[in-house]
Each structure stands twice: as C-alpha cells, then as structure tokens.
Amino acid sequence: xxxxxxxxxxxxxxxxxxxxxxxxxxxxxxxxxxxxxxxxxxxxxxxxxxxxxxxxxxxxxxxxxxxxxxxxxxxxxxxxxxxxxxxxxxxxxxxxxxxxxxxxxxxxxxxxxxxxxxxxxxxxxxx
Length: 127
Hints:
globular; Double Stranded RNA Binding Domain; about 30% strand
C-alpha cells in the first residue's frame, strides 16, 4: 500500500485539532484520485503526488471558504459529522464509512466496480 502524507497550511498554535479520516485512493484512465467521503472532497492529478497536493489544497479551500462564510459547523453537520461541546472545547467526529455507504450510492459503486485503496490520514482542523 502506498504511503500518503498530507500537510495543512491552515494550522495555528493552540487553535487546531487533529481528525483521523478514512480516505480512498483510485487510479483511473491515467489519473489518480484521493477522495474523502467525510468531507465529500476530492483531489486528483497525473501522479499520486499531484493528487495528494490537490487533495490538500481542496481541504484547505473547503475549510477557508466555510470559515469565511460562517458555515463550517453547519456544513460538517450536513455531511454527517457529530459536533459536541462549546467553541472552546469542541469535539468533531466524522461519519463512519458504514454510515456513508448507506447514504451515498457512488461509494458502493466504487467498492463494487473500481480498484481502490482505503487508508487513514490525520488532518488538522481549526478549533
């Protein structure tokens, strides 16, 4: 299994939390894709390195956009995340893959019809 590393530029000392995510890596028609079912965000490129870079940029843009628009928490909630606690002590729990497979038909299609690799990655979110 290939090793995937991601780094978020959206980190501030004392203002971030780490989340462990399930990611799916697919190679198809000469392109590599990395998909986060929990965020419904994809990165892609001609190489795995390009896909990793694209995915990191996509996650950062998702975070930046939703924070700037004041929709970060509501967007995560709509994606199935559980968010508990006050703003100072907030706990984010992403939806589990089993739940997402029941809700998103295209995930079942990926598993049934495509060659993929599933892996975990810890990313940093703003607290």
